[in-house]
Structure formats: C-alpha cells, structure tokens
Amino acid sequence: MNQPVDADDARHLESLYSPLTQSVRNLIDLVIRSEADDDNVKQAHDLIEQAAHLLGSQVSSEPFGVRTTTDGGILTWGNVAIGMRNAIAPPLQVVHGQDGSAAADVTLGAPYEGPPGHVHGGVCALLLDHILGATAHRPGKPAFTGTLTLRYVAPTRLGDLRVNAWVESESESKTIAVGQITDPDGVVTVQAEGIFIRPKAKS
Amino acid sequence: MNQPVDADDARHLESLYSPLTQSVRNLIDLVIRSEADDDNVKQAHDLIEQAAHLLGSQVSSEPFGVRTTTDGGILTWGNVAIGMRNAIAPPLQVVHGQDGSAAADVTLGAPYEGPPGHVHGGVCALLLDHILGATAHRPGKPAFTGTLTLRYVAPTRLGDLRVNAWVESESESKTIAVGQITDPDGVVTVQAEGIFIRPKAKS
C-alpha cells in the first residue's frame, strides 16, 4: 500500500490533471473524426510526441492503483471507468443513493462506437459492470465481479445515456445487483444482473 | 452508407493515423503515471491543445462508423475494441481460425485498470464481447450482442493476456459462442458465453 497522499497535494494534482485529461479525451475523439490536411496531422503528431516527452520526464513504474489521502479520501484516478486521470474513462460520475442504489448520467461519443452510430456492446458491459459493482463497494473493501449477465434488448445509440443499478440482495461477502442502461427516450437498451464478491480481509 | 474510400487513400491514411494513434495511446498511459514537474505538465497540456486545434481544423460531424474501400476492404477504424484510429482500443488484433474461432493476444497496461494492478472486470467484458462477436460476424453482416454471460473465476492481472472464442452452435440468424481470457501462466481468468444476432437484411 502506498503512503497516503497529502490532501492539499491531491487537490493541487486534481486541478492540474483534470483539465489535461479532459483535453486528451477531446484528442482521442479528434484522432477518429479528423479530416485535417496531412501537414496538420503530422504537426499534431509531433506536438503529441513532445507532450509525451514532457509527461514522461518522471513517471511511476506502477499503474495508479487506489490511493488514500491524509483527510480520508480515496483516489481512483487511474480507473478505466471513473478515473479523473484516465482519458479512456468518460468518466462515469457515480451518484450513490441512500438505498444503496447507484446511478450515472453519461454522454458517449465517437470513441465508444461499435456498430455504426451505436455504443459497442462491450462498453455497455463496462458501464454496467462498474455501476452494479458500485452498489457492492464498501469503504476500503472493494468488490470484485463474480458473474455478470447482460441482455441487450434494444440498440444503444451514441449520445446521452443513464446507467442505474440497485441491490437485489446482499450478505457480508457478496451483493447481487441489477441494473440497466436507458436512452433519452426512456427506452431500456441493456439489462444486467451481477454477483459481486467482497474478499475476506487477510488476517 | 458513405461512398467507398479509394484504396490508395485508405493506405495513405493508415500510414498517417496508425502511428499518431499509437502516440495517443502512450499519452493516455503517461497522463495516468506521470510524476513530472508542474511546469512540464502545463506545457504538455498546451501542446495537446495545439495538437487538438490542428486535428480539429477539419472534422467529420459523424462517428467513423464502418466504411468500405474500392478494393473490397472494410474499415472499422473508429471501433473502441479494434479501431486503428481509436486510442481507447488496445487494439485487439483478431485472428480468425478456419473453424470459425477467433483469438487475440493483447497487452493491457495502466489505462485498463480496475482493482489495483488488475484489469477492470468491464474491460474483460469488452474484450470477450468483441471476440465472441467476431465469431458471429459475416462480411457485410454485423452481429449484435443478444446476451452475454461472464464468469470471473480468477483475478486478471494487468499485462499479457490471450482472448479466445469458439462457435458453440449457429443458425442463419444467430451464433452462440463461448470464450475465455487466459493469463501468461495458462490460468483461465474469465469465461464467457454469448448469443449474437444477425439482423435480417432490410428488403
């Protein structure tokens, strides 16, 4: 386990990396949709290489993992679904309900495409795995996916989506959760059921 | 449907965008792992904004979709799992067997993290959805995921992985496929079963 991150340092790093990561999300989208002249594309490539050189001047040899802060916060900045510093993450902004439910509104553009104009079925699975899992997390006690079953009942168009999950039943070691993706017309496009396991603390 | 892309143009665009996208993949990783000085991070951010400005000088208003080439090729450059121009895609390089099987070797680093040091369960789902679906695709007849069931039987560490899928049964309109993720020790970490539907051609 890493040393806790000083809470002020964490706030400073967030102010530095959050807009940077947002710019990289935009860049990912533009690399797919660009129709720029060759010279512009080559020059953009050079600039990106320069940026990588600067960011790579000092790097951790480890993935980000999960870190704590001195004021009791938990940093999941590298997480592929919710990570503030992970440009792959839309990011999902998970809102927890008092009843143990979890929800997120998310807008998915060109980088999440599978079938033309539609969200890749595997991205729907990623969103649902994360949001169902979020109902099972306890502070300091991450839950791992045991099984996940997805039913694709209607096409999921790129654009605005809502992802929801609720706890169906739970015990000390596991949570059974259900959830769905809903499009702007209120149509449920994917339904999910998952079993999430909380490993026993090592004694 | 878009006009077919001239085959020479497609080859030229690939030579331009393939290395660019690879640089953006590297950039995504560095944004997560960087420990560079503030000044370097800010300067990198400026360079990325400049690159985005250049790439954004002319853009398609549409996601990439699936395009054909004048020599009969199919371009899926925007696809989130396999897209040459999609920096989110590892990309999966799917190899099709003569028996209808599909396989890919892939290396997943920090950007695909969920639990510390491990691949996010939802990314495993994305890989498996794609590779199982690949057994069901027919030229010009994409298959959509109907249902997908995943069993997470062992932790999937970040690093080298093999993803495999086989056809279990099939009819004209659907394919039932099974598959798995295997780690470098030969341990199967995730098992999957999926039903993939080929929509009837519109007449």
Structure description:
The structure is a homodimer of 203-residue chains. The first copy, chain A, has three helices and eight strands, in the order ααββββαββββ. The first copy, chain A, is α+β, with helices and mostly antiparallel strands. In chain A, the strands form two sheets. In chain A, strands 3-4-6-7-8-5 form a six-stranded antiparallel sheet, with helices on one face. In chain A, a hairpin with a 5-residue loop joins β1 and β2. The first copy, chain A, is flat. Chain A starts with 6 loop residues before the first helix and ends in a 6-residue tail after the last strand. The relative contact order of chain A is 0.12. The model of chain A has no long low-confidence stretch (mean pLDDT 94). Chains A and B meet through α1, α2, α3 and β5 of A and α1, α2, α3 and β5 of B. β5 (144-152) of chain A pairs antiparallel with β5 (144-152) of chain B.
